[in-house]
Fold these 3 entries.
Entry 1:
Amino acid sequence: MEKVKRILVLTGGGDCPGLNAVIRGIAKRARKEKNWEVYGSIEAFNGVLNEPQEIIRLTSSRTKGIHVKGGTILKTTNKANPVKFPIYHPDGTTTFTDRSDELVKKLKALKFDAVINIGGDGSQKISKALFDKGIPIIGVPKTIDNDLSATDVTFGFQTAVQIATDSFDKLVTTAESHHRVMIMEVMGRDAGWIALHTAIAGGAEICLIPEIPYDIHKLVKRLELRYKKGKGFANIVIAEGAMPKKGTITSSAGDKGSEHVRLGGVAYQLSKQLKDAGCKAEIRETVLGHVQRGGTPVAFDRVLATLFGVKAFELIKEKKFGRMVAFQNNEITSVPLEDATRECSFVKKDSYLVQAAKGLSISFGD
């Protein structure tokens, strides 16, 4: 009798529309083969490291219909990096330790034939570290920021843009009704893809992104052109990581165990900067925050995520470990994990997308 082969699936980092579609794609594709079982680790690698362990069998009843649901049935966390695992002390301090060898030992004891790690840049760096320690692993890229250079697009991005655009459309009508400047803040720590796509789709007057620092005085002049005799309105899209040419990014201390500072609130900072620089119009601010991460994924993201899941299983079947699934030139392919995490994908100032936006008279404040 042929040996039953076991796959462990996990989702790490921030949640993202389409995660459940990947999980379902893996499980459904595996069920078409003989002697394959798929399991899930709860809250990324915490499910393996915790005592008792939290690992569930991804049966048909658990995965059916989940492709239309947001979030992840396996839960997720950005505070469980096994290479830099947080240790909380009674005095309130936090230190970090390397638990990767412990994790490798536990994975081998569980006798999994392969691991599929679904996550962004940080998660795939973990995948690479575990692969180097002998774990047969496949990565699946996930980020609404669309900032992984090894894949042309990531699932979740289109849904985030759709949510942001729907919200922007609603703000346009209230801005026009009250002759106000509306500032809408979207996600984008280091890359401005969501803001840029939303600005073009929604017809923004101003788009501010991390890659192009802005001059507040140029923004005030642009807004003045929108107002005549006190009448007019304007809509601004700003990424959470945007910053002025003179100044710093808006951030606060991250949550305990997180390696990142917490961004958010740049819309309010921009509002104050505009007023201090002489903007006379009424200004209102809207921060979308985690709304962009939630809800039902759009059709494009469901399809892409499902194809990623199928491809991840097929790479395991072919024993092509140490690779990340990718979408390149309209094809589902894969790249070595070292290439997957080599560099991020940032908006380039001379890109056609930026130049087209400027051709539509969208200002970046540069």
Entry 2:
Amino acid sequence: MKTPLLAFNQNGIYCAVADVYIDPWKRVDKAIITHGHADHSRWGNKKYITHHHNIPIMKHRLGDIDVGGKNYGETFTINNVKFSLHPAGHIVGSSQVRVEYKGEVWVCSGDYKTEDDGVSTPFEPIKCHTFITECTFGLPAFKWKSQTEVMSEINNWWKENKTEERTSVLFGYSLGKAQRLLKHLDTDIGEIYTHGAIENMTDVLRLMIDFPSTKLITKETTKKELNGNLVLAPPSAHGSTWIRKMVPFVTASASGWMTFRSARRRRAIDKGFVMSDHCDWDGLLSSIKATKCEKVICTHGYTEIFSKYLREIGYDARTEATQYEGEAADVDQ
């Protein structure tokens, strides 16, 4: 039986010919990293390879690491295996990894989305024989509105809260979602305040992207200053003592999980906006079709349901267990 070009073992996704891992969840000697979220980019590897724009993100989160940067489309060879990184559209610096050996091509997508968010480099489908895909939102129930429509809803929500003299607290992941929101918030409405985790990460990304100005919330920040303005905070801040100084405030969450009202109720959120940095059902299917692949490996999300559907429409599809979390409803990535 032919050994697969990429295999799943106890450490991660492994290319034995090159002796390199993609997004390993245990410590290895050499790792190619798709993006900077904690479940894909972990501390402890001896050598990292990633996109140039992901390096400052990784160093901010992991500290002093041995990491080399590549451009999109730049080919690098390890033991006769050709690798290259291609835009995933997930967050800043996110990549798909193309792997080629003896005419066989695999693509490991990491996390990805097809809509251009105006912050990250837009997703590009890469032709391959085997495509490794997430399926975080791999159910037909998940269907995203356009970013323009969702941001209009968010800005109108902020306006309404301001007229009622309440602070708008908007929750989003400190890396990716928060900067996407920040980029498209209407600063004519008021000022934007931030939790420290978001402020620090945004400062890292300001080296590459032009964002509106923000104000860090400190012990000296008063309720009067916050009143009518908007606060960007990570999901972990909800229910904390930190948020009490916002009173009177209204909360909202921007997440794909806001598709389900039960998720909003479970987290005691006043308002839910459906916005994800992952593909919806249609985005997953169109992306897979665009690769012209024959085989699909589903790694995290609704893997069984999604792979079953892929088999029904003619793909050689299967699942593999990983330690990736996708867009976890209660985790700040």
Entry 3:
Amino acid sequence: MTSRNNALKIFTGNANPALAMEICDYLNIPLARASVKKFSDGEIFVEIGENVRGSDVFIIQPTSPPVNRNLMELLIMTDALRRASARRITAVTAYYGYGRQDRKAAPRVPITAKLVADLITTAGARRVLAMDLHAGQIQGFFNIPVDHLYAAPTLYKYLKENIAEDIVMVSPDAGGVERVRYLANKLHTTIAIIDKRRERPNESKVMNVIGDVSGKTAVLLDDMIDTAGTICHAADTLMEKGAKKVYACATHAVLSGPAIDRIKDSNIEKLIVTNTIPLNENAINTGKIIVLSVSEVLGEAIRRIHEDDSITLLFE
């Protein structure tokens, strides 16, 4: 695992150094040295602080807010490592920014998720490790291997151990039914679906609930929570339909704009998220947000990729 010409090295930018440290602790290796700074004009400067020639390198850098800065850090670090003769570079984009722009939803708009995939590949990445992509087809935007992990097993363990009441798993839209069905099958529960109409980006209007939630503990599940409008409106509707309590789960806690205030004032009992994106103090101080770590899942995936082993076990 640490042979001279195939050493495993973990680097990180400024997006989520705490997650990188947790992954290094799991793998029992030190975090590799790199200086990632910003000049006064906003330009990013990267200097790799150790020899990486022939190394198997992983960059822990979710492209979360500030998305453009974190994306540029990832691209510049990748370029620096490629020019330093790293044997293979894997971009660990635990959260893949621009993932919602995965198709032409209107005339004369870009497919930015594909553009970002091209940028990462052109910079020199030879593999991508991601978690809960907004759309599974984003894997096909890359012409390099993509290992797509899921937070569902981590969420399942928490729900099973901490929410023992009569549960109904709820999808906040029709597109998330498959994600909800996986957990519903594992927990042996029923499912429900929120039927909503989206008037404009980041705004939604909940219309109806398909399924029985009366007298049950409703658990909303989504891949990400951004401004929290959808999830909070959904919680209101579920309570109106007779749910006893409403919990919400999401892999990626983007929590931009009015999200924190909306969650504090909502009918959501607890919001369960993972640490793919670091939370700020305002989010932590709400008392409503529980953060689960995915460092072991990502660390084990990194170990198996490095050793050319299967990662199928991580989906169970």
